[in-house]
């Protein structure tokens, strides 16, 4: 399965399920965005403030497998 991108208002999140090691670092770190019981399970629209977007960047930085990546929006 290819890497998928989920769009948010401040940052996007890309995810590769083949790389994920299911460490659940993301689910523990930001459960509003990463909710395995929901489809899609990644919802970056929950990170709709600068503070929340920074939390999202920090949580993704802790992903041990590299499955998650932040996709920054281009500044206009
Ligand atoms: S933190 Fe990374 S490796 Fe762990 S469940 Fe989330 S995406 Fe998968």
Describe this structure in words.
There is one protein chain. By secondary structure, this protein is an alpha+beta fold. It has a single domain (4-72), classed as Alpha-Beta Plaits, CATH 3.30.70.20. The chain is built from 2 helices and 3 strands; from the N terminus they run ββααβ. It has helices spanning 25-29, 50-61; strands spanning 4-6, 11-15, 68-72. It has a 3-stranded antiparallel beta sheet with strand order 1-2-3, covered by helices on one side. The site of iron/sulfur cluster has 12 residues, from α1.
Quick gist of this model?
This protein is an alpha+beta fold and 76 residues long. It is built from two helices and three strands, in the order E-E-H-H-E.
Secondary structure layout plus pairing:
Blueprint: E1 4-6, E2 11-15, H1 25-29, H2 50-61, E3 68-72
Antiparallel strand pairs: 1-2, 2-3
The structure holds iron/sulfur cluster.
What CATH first level would be assigned? Alpha Beta
Number of domains: 1
CATH topology value: Alpha-Beta Plaits
Spatial extent as radius of gyration: 11 Å
Keywords:
single chain, alpha+beta, three-stranded antiparallel beta sheet, 2 helices, 3 strands, binds iron/sulfur cluster
């Amino acid at each position: 399965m290819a890497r998928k991108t989920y769009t948010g208002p401040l940052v996007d999140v890309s995810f590769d399920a083949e790389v994920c090691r299911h460490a659940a670092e993301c689910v523990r770190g930001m459960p509003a965005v990463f909710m395995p019981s929901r489809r899609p399970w990644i919802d970056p629209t929950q990170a709709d403030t600068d503070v929340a977007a920074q939390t999202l960047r920090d949580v993704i930085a802790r992903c041990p497998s590299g499955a998650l990546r932040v996709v920054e929006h281009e500044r206009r």
